[in-house]
Structure formats: structure tokens, C-alpha cells
Design brief:
Order of helices and strands: HEHEHEHEHEHEEHEHHEHH
Strand order of the largest sheet: 7-6-5-8-9
């Protein structure tokens, strides 16, 4: 029997069995709630707090929907009107919130490692879920990407996955590699300008290239990443038109990939910079499936953490 989670701050070192358990549970909950049209009582009486120190559309909304569809109460913590805006230390904010008897805190923060720090400083039985920390991890995004791929190509061992864009600053890329590596993906390729690629020593299992045409050749999955300007120095910012010419995914480049190559993107999209309209909206795009799967994956995580 797969042990239940206590927290989820990263997918690194999570076993294949644990990841498959969460993916299976996501599908079961999707079916149980009739794709979101039926509310469950799995987490009735539980309270989930969304603690977002960075802007978010998809992740925050899907965590809220996930908790509510499981029957939990949800509190959205408004950082702009909180005491943290007055200089309150993060741990004092944590202990104040814990005193209100929360069951889970979903946290997004610009500083890598913040969710693990909250785990270490928590004084109650509250569970911590990482909704993205710095450039380190975004575990539920890694899970929903794996689920989206599995729905179309469950033969992970035979897959070639190309991840292209600003990988150096991407927590999504890191969690995707942790998930796909655990699931046995045959080959993972990293592609982008040298300044936007991580150190090769961080990902010895991945193949690195600056040539997108060769990176997309024969790929079964293409995961496109946006330029994370909020995490870049001014000297790292590429010219957008030149970037699209070298690293943008259009129909001509997609034709180099394997037949039926899945096109994915964690959002938000920068159309005309990392992906062309005809690809983002095309028949091979799985971007909106990723968004839908995000709710069910987050339901699975919350249920695994909190269900009695």
C-alpha cells in the first residue's frame, strides 16, 4: 500500500508508485465528481488556506476549485492587506494562521525553499503544499503534465520529451523532469539559449542543445516554457522577435516532431514569442487539457493529505 503524503513540497525522490497513485486518484476523483459537476464530501469539515505571495491565475483558482469540490472550506489569504505587508515575519504569519486551526496551507513564494521552511517551522499538524517556489519546484504542475501525457501516451519508456524555453528559471521544468524521470521516460531533451539553460550537472539525465530544430526532431511531446522576465536580469532578456525565430514553436517546426506530438505549455502563454497561435490553438495542443487536469490532480493531492 502506498503511504499517504504528509506534505507535498517537491516531486524529487518521490517514487514511481507514489506518483502513479496520485495520477490514478486524480482520475478516480474526476469520475466521482462527474468532471466537476458533482460536489463530494471527502474533505467536509477541513479548511484549506491559499497563501500566495506571487500572482497566479490557473494554480490558485484550481486549488480553490479542487478544495471546494472535495467539500472543504477555503480561505484565500490576501497578501496585500495582510500584516506581512507591514513587515511581519513569515513564520509569525504561519503561527498566527495555525492558531486558527487550518488543515492545509497551499503556498506560492518567490523564494526557493519557502514551503520546506514552513514545514520545518509549523507547530501544528497542518499540511503544506507547494504551489511554486522560486525556480525550484512546482510539484502539482509536474503531476498534471504527467497525467496529460499519460492520457494520450502511457508508454513512457518509449517517449521522447522536448522541453524548450527558459529552463534555467523554470520550476515547472524541474518538477516535470522529476515526474517524467520517475515514470521512466526514455529521453528528455532541454533546448534554449545557453543563458537560459541550467547547469548540465543539475540534470545529468537530460540531453542539452541550443538547436530547436534538432531538439524537436522525432519528439513525442513538446513542452514550451515562457520567458520568466520577473526572474531574469536585464542582461539575460532576449530580443523577442529573434527568440521566436530560433525557439518559437510553429507548424513548420512541429512537422519535424513525431506524428501526433503532444503540444503542452504550463501558461501563461506568450503568443508569438514561444508559441505560434496556430500551434497553441491547433489539433495537437493539450494546453486546455492541462488546465482541466490541474483541478483533478490538486483534488488528489488534497485528498491524500487530508481525507480521514
Amino acid at each position: 500500500m502506498t503511504p499517504r503524503l504528509r506534505h507535498l513540497t517537491t516531486l524529487e525522490h518521490l517514487s514511481r508508485e507514489s506518483i502513479e497513485h496520485l495520477l490514478d486518484r486524480a482520475i478516480a476523483l474526476r469520475d466521482a465528481c462527474a468532471h466537476g459537476t458533482r460536489k463530494l464530501d471527502t474533505l467536509a469539515g477541513r479548511t484549506v488556506l491559499n497563501l500566495f505571495f506571487e500572482p497566479s491565475t490557473r494554480t490558485r483558482t484550481s486549488f480553490e476549485l479542487a478544495a471546494r469540490r472535495l467539500g472543504a472550506d477555503v480561505v484565500n489569504f490576501d497578501i496585500g492587506f495582510s500584516s506581512s505587508a507591514k513587515g511581519e515575519a513569515l513564520y509569525d504569519t504561519l503561527h498566527t494562521l495555525e492558531a486558527m486551526h487550518l488543515d492545509a496551507i497551499v503556498v506560492r513564494h518567490k523564494v526557493s525553499g519557502t514551503p520546506d521552511e514552513l514545514v520545518r517551522h509549523a507547530m501544528s499538524g497542518v499540511s503544506v503544499v507547494n504551489a511554486g517556489d522560486g525556480n525550484r519546484a512546482h510539484p502539482t504542475q509536474g503531476l498534471l503534465d504527467a497525467l496529460t501525457i499519460r492520457q494520450h501516451r502511457p508508454d513512457f519508456e518509449n517517449l521522447t520529451v522536448t522541453i524548450c524555453g527558459d529552463i534555467r528559471h523554470s520550476r515547472v521544468a524541474r518538477s516535470d523532469v522529476h515526474a517524467l524521470g520517475a515514470l521512466g521516460v526514455g529521453e528528455i531533451r532541454f533546448c534554449g539559449p545557453a543563458a537560459l539553460l541550467p547547469e548540465a550537472s543539475e540534470f545529468p539525465q537530460c540531453r542539452f542543445t541550443e538547436d530547436f530544430d534538432s531538439a524537436i526532431e522525432g519528439a513525442d511531446v513538446a513542452i514550451m516554457l515562457r520567458l520568466q522576465k520577473e526572474r531574469m536580469a536585464a542582461t539575460e532578456l532576449p530580443d523577442e522577435a529573434a527568440y521566436f525565430k530560433r525557439y518559437g514553436l510553429n507548424n513548420q517546426r512541429l512537422a519535424r516532431a513525431a506524428k501526433g506530438c503532444l503540444v503542452m505549455h504550463p501558461g501563461p502563454l506568450n503568443r508569438g514569442i514561444e508559441i505560434a497561435d496556430e500551434v497553441a490553438d491547433g489539433a495537437q495542443s493539450r494546453i486546455l487539457e492541462q488546465v482541466a487536469n490541474g483541478v483533478f490532480v490538486r483534488m488528489a493531492v488534497l485528498a491524500d493529505l487530508l481525507a480521514r
